[in-house]
Design goal:
Length: about 325
């Protein structure tokens, strides 16, 4: 059960936003949809949430076509918009929750029961009667997520859930989302430009580019399929990196006192050959360390890098 998207396309007057997109999402899965601006991710999210009609193709939820679900479907999903747009600042946190709970046709006793548990889980219970205008950015984000969960949804859509938060608030919110999602077996479909957040929350990623799927699969598998990044510290002529670095992609270079510190990307055989050549050229190697690859680096590679970043392409 879950989502099945088949041959989905969406045309606007002057642009093909989605082209023949197909994928499935299992219940309880946490998935991130990524792409550059204009890649089609917002269009895809709007279609999945029922806010936008498709041009062709089908979207099934629990084996039923979305076009037949209507109001029953909206009771099954929660949506958290970027920038706490689903809260009213002149109301208190609890008043916001009551308002949105009533929109879901929930009675007040049911809302209060759910709200108490969620407010305590997200550490907002003591501030529930404060006006949202007095909340910090992190508190507003937490409240938005509580509102998205108040109807006990089976699917939660998160749009930039940690945008603008400091590192402590961001990490705390990630842990709270993770614990709640796992304990309640909720499907999460998220978008974010903060790829460290994507790595922390999602196990699977769909990369969109110009309305087509570039990659659909496990994040760690995507990262592991790429060449590795190494940091090489050596004494000698820094210009040798470009002269003899066949097959290397230079990521960065800097001077640390008398030593050169360069980060390059290549397979281990290329790194070893490069190191041996450096020694033959009279350089002294201080150390070679493998650097953990990030999702951001992999995506940048998939979308292409500047030609001058490639050394002696063979």
């Amino acid at each position: 059960m879950g989502y099945l998207v088949t041959n989905l396309s969406k045309d606007f007057k002057d642009k093909l936003a989605l082209h023949d997109v197909s994928f499935s999402i299992k219940d309880g899965e946490i998935i991130s949809i990524l792409g550059k601006n204009g890649a089609g991710k917002t269009t895809l999210i709007k279609i999945l949430t029922g806010l936008l009609n498709k041009t062709s193709g089908d979207v099934f939820y629990n084996d039923i076509n979305l076009i037949y679900l209507k109001s029953s479907y909206y009771k099954s999903i929660g949506v958290v918009l970027e920038g706490d747009r689903n809260t009213y600042w002149y109301l208190s946190g609890l008043e916001n929750i009551l308002y949105f709970g009533r929109l879901h046709k929930m009675n007040d006793s049911e809302i209060h029961g759910r709200a108490e548990k969620l407010l305590k889980h997200f550490s907002l219970y003591d501030d529930r009667k404060k006006k949202v205008s007095h909340y910090s950015r992190g508190m507003k984000q937490k409240l938005s997520i509580i509102i998205g969960l108040i109807n006990n949804p089976k699917v939660l859509f998160l749009d930039e859930p940690t945008l603008g938060l400091d590192v402590w608030s961001k990490n705390s919110l990630i842990e709270l989302i993770q614990s709640y999602v796992v304990s309640h077996n909720i499907t999460v479909i998220m978008t974010s430009h903060q790829l460290d957040i994507v790595e922390s929350l999602a196990k699977r990623v769909i990369l969109l580019d110009e309305g087509k799927i570039m990659y659909d699969g496990d994040i760690q598998k995507l990262i592991g399929n790429e060449d590795s990044i190494y940091e090489i510290v050596f004494y000698g002529d820094i210009s040798l990196v470009k002269k003899i670095g066949r097959g290397l992609r230079l990521i960065s270079q800097k001077k640390e006192e008398e030593a050169n510190c360069v980060r390059v990307e290549a397979d281990i055989e290329t790194i070893l050959n490069f190191s041996q050549t450096l020694i033959q050229e009279g350089c002294k190697i201080e150390g070679i360390n493998k650097v953990k690859r990030s999702l951001e680096q992999v995506i940048l590679n998939n979308w292409g890098v500047a030609e001058h970043d490639i050394l002696h392409k063979s």
